[in-house]
Amino acid sequence: MLRFIVLSAFAILSTSVACASSLDFSVHKMTSGVPGNTVLIVGGIQGDEPGGFNAASIITTHYKITSGNVWVVPNLNFLSIIKRSRGVYGDLNRKFADIKKSDPEYETILKIKDLILNDEVDLVLNLHDGSGFYRDTYVDKLRNPNRWGQCIIADQGALSGVRFGNLAELATRTVKEVNNALLDPSHTYSFMNTRTREGNVEMAKTLTYFTILNNKPAFGIEASKSLPTHERAYYHIRAIESFLKDLDITFERRFELTSSGVKHAINDNVSFALNDKRIVLDVKNARNNLRYIPLKKEDPMEFSPSNPLMAAIDTGKGYRIYYGNRRVTWLHPEYFEYDTSIDSVEMTVDGVSRQVNFGDIVPVRDVFKVHPISGLRVNVIGFTQKNVQNESGIPISQHNIQRRFSVDKAGMLYRVEFYNQEKFSGMVLMNFSGDAVAREDSRGLEEHSGELVGGLDEGTDRLNASGV
């Protein structure tokens, strides 16, 4: 059934939906239950460095820690991330030595300092994307001592009397590990000692030096801005895994650590749920505008993203959905009272009857049909049949639905909405893409195997111009 209803007035801003000026960072404590060391990983301190913050996000969504602990802040400067800015209020990585209470980022600095100083944290990694390729000697304008990309940075060679204080040794070992898995010989990593204590004024203002001053080991991991985002993230992850190995932190990884594997991990996890998961939208290839999204009348929108780099910003004219520094779509709502008397419906998909929960994304090869339920009206967005108000009981194929109503630009994802009289009950997405069907066919085997990527035989132990 097509939609021709005028948009309603906007709901009160939810605490789970941010104003652009009020985005806070998130902390993800990945605990194994097995005693061990704890590493704190920080991404997004500068918003124009997507290799770093995407790598940090992947750690939270695609890793399981099996001994020790990993804490991750993937989005420290969230506002600058969505604004594609090094720092909306100045460089956040220059505010650790001194910051005024009037600074808009004063509370952010206090919170991240408290996290760094937590007694459980043994070592800190700060992820950056830097210009060019750091080299000890001048090669050319992109490869010289004034560049920051492709290096592991320490503020000094060692930190006396501290566990893991052998900074140069740890960094050099990580450099060797990364250089054993280069995507291209020109991507070589190096170790940079900034000798901050000897008078490096700029580096004395940074997160890593604050950590060093408080007798904790810290490193900057730099990937080159000359590389595409997924390759930068690949190198960040290689370096992170090397440090985890040195601290005897073991893990399992849900993807192959290759350039294409990282790219897929970044781009294939872009969805969110709304309002107790009665709506789920996969927006990795969404249309620029999604209209008539049924939201709760007079209630805040509950936004539950699939990864920590997603944000919903209330513009007053809709909700802009961001994934890192990309705006993926704009939601235009229509407001309803919600009916919570039912949570699932019966459907026949490609000849197989199944119970489908609201919020599910259902792969379909050819045809689907919603079984009639007394009092429940079915609305397949983009499908129309003369004099039909309830579209249950009708076999529907992809070619029966107008492509311009799809959620995605490829015309594969379509909304099926359910209403109890005038109240909204829930939504299901039908996914006609061949990839989705193939994943559905293989899912049973994956679920029973219980295996994650990351074994020894795969090469992984389980276990800007100014730079930083």
Q: How would a crystallographer describe the biggest sheet?
A: 7 strands, mixed
Helix content: 10-25%
Head-to-tail CA distance between termini: 54 Å
CATH topology of the largest domain: Aminopeptidase
**Within the largest sheet, what's the order of strands?**
1-4-2-5-10-8-9
CATH architecture of the largest domain: 3-Layer(aba) Sandwich
The proportion of strand residues reads: 25-35%
**Number of self-contained structural domains:** 2
Number of H- or I-type helical stretches: 8
- What does the radius of gyration come to? 25 Å
Q: What CATH first level of the largest domain would be assigned?
A: Alpha Beta
| Number of strand segments | 26
Uncertain runs? 1-16, 444-466
Q: For the residues shown, what is the average pLDDT? A: 91
GO molecular function, one term: carboxypeptidase activity
Domain D,L-carboxypeptidase peptidase: 38-267
Region (Disordered): 441-468
Signal peptide: 1-20
Keywords, separated by commas or semicolons:
alpha/beta; Metallo-carboxypeptidase-like protein; elongated; Peptidase_M99; hydrolase; disordered C terminus; single chain; Aminopeptidase
Q: Mind sketching the topology for me?
A:
Layout: E1 28-31, E2 38-42, H1 50-62, E3 63-67, E4 69-73, H2 78-82, H3 106-117, E5 123-130, E6 133-134, E7 143-144, E8 151-154, H4 167-179, E9 190-193, H5 207-213, E10 218-224, H6 229-246, E11 250-253, H7 259-267, E12 271-274, E13 279-282, E14 289-296, E15 303-305, E16 310-314, E17 319-323, E18 326-336, E19 344-349, E20 352-357, E21 361-363, E22 367-370, E23 376-380, E24 396-397, E25 413-420, E26 423-431, H8 434-449
Parallel strand pairs: 2-4, 2-5, 5-10, 6-7, 8-9, 14-18, 21-26
Antiparallel strand pairs: 1-4, 3-11, 8-10, 12-13, 12-15, 16-17, 17-18, 19-20, 19-22, 22-24, 23-25, 25-26
Helix pairs in contact: 1-6, 4-6, 6-7
